[in-house]
Write a structure and sequence with these properties.
The protein has about 280 residues and is an all-alpha fold. The chain is about 65% helix and about 0% strand. Helix 6 crosses helix 9. About 10% of the residues are buried.
């Protein structure tokens, strides 16, 4: 039944639709969609012009860019100098061990000297020494040109080949190739396999987290075999997590990729068993 409006009632209804003094519309959602509310909202839009680019100070810009190039060149020079100095460091360490120079400091052994000079890890010292121990004399003369990191790769080849080490060829490659490319080339020569590019990843963990992480990596290593690196073990753990996370309603592409990586980790017999089982279920 329709009721006629009483005098002044329509005016009072319109007053209820007006926003309060603070500009916030306190009305129901249906009322906000009314033309009056839309008009009120549109009046609150502010169109700000795009900021103008700063005036180019050519003199200052040239100075700053030149400084950046100088710092990068300095870093590269320091890295090359570090490579050269470490070659000398390995040669001096070999001389200290041969001449038993640690007696000058009243030490009992060469290992005690390394413990003092290399408190973090003695492994690096032995790496530097291995370059001079395994490379032939003609290669040791040119070590400063290639640096200690490439020299370490050359030492691996020299240790394997012995008298048949092709010194001239590999020294030429070491001079011409970047470090990472040369490392992969040596790895391919030693293993006969093409290695994919690698990258070192650093992240911080708390001491309380280390036992869990170590146990997980050790367990994955037992499943994959002791010949697998910790990087492969970590990848298996991550693949297992992704497979479980996307098993029901997740991304099927991620699940497929995780299963594919799992298959690659399996030994040959298990791969065949997996394929047979898959074909049986498919048929």
């Amino acid at each position: 039944m329709l009721h006629p409006h009483k005098p002044g009632q329509r005016a009072r209804n319109l007053d209820r639709r007006r926003p309060p003094d603070d500009g916030v519309i306190k009305s129901s959602p249906a009322l906000c969609a009314s033309q009056e509310s839309i008009l009120v909202c549109l009046t609150n839009f502010r169109f700000r012009p795009m900021p103008m680019p700063p005036k180019l100070n050519r003199k200052r810009a040239l100075f700053v860019l030149t400084k950046i190039d100088e710092i990068l060149a300095w870093e590269k020079q320091k890295e090359m100098e570090r490579d050269t100095r470490f070659v000398d460091l390995g040669r001096y360490l070999c001389e200290v061990r041969a001449g038993q120079y640690w007696r000058l400091e009243n030490l009992k052994s060469f290992d005690e000297l390394l413990t003092r000079r290399f408190p973090e890890s003695r492994r690096k010292a032995y790496y530097l020494m291995s370059i001079h121990e395994h490379l032939p004399p003609q290669a040791r003369k040119d070590l400063k040109e290639v640096g200690w990191t490439k020299g370490l790769e050359l030492a691996k080849l020299a240790r394997r080949d012995g008298q048949h080490f092709d010194c001239a060829t590999w020294l030429h490659r070491a001079r011409e190739m970047p470090k990472e490319d040369f490392r992969r080339e040596v790895e391919k020569e030693l293993t006969g396999k093409e290695t994919e590019p690698s990258e070192l990843i650093y992240f911080k963990v708390y001491k309380s987290q280390i036992p869990v992480i170590e146990q997980a990596i050790e367990t994955a290593g037992l499943m994959l075999g002791t010949d697998k690196s910790r990087g492969y073990c970590l990848e298996m753990i991550c693949a297992d997590f992704l497979a479980g996370a996307h098993l029901d309603d997740g991304n099927p592409e991620i699940l497929l990729n995780s299963i594919s990586r799992y298959y690659k980790f399996l030994p040959g017999e298990q791969q065949q068993a997996f394929l047979v089982n898959l074909l049986e279920k498919a048929s």
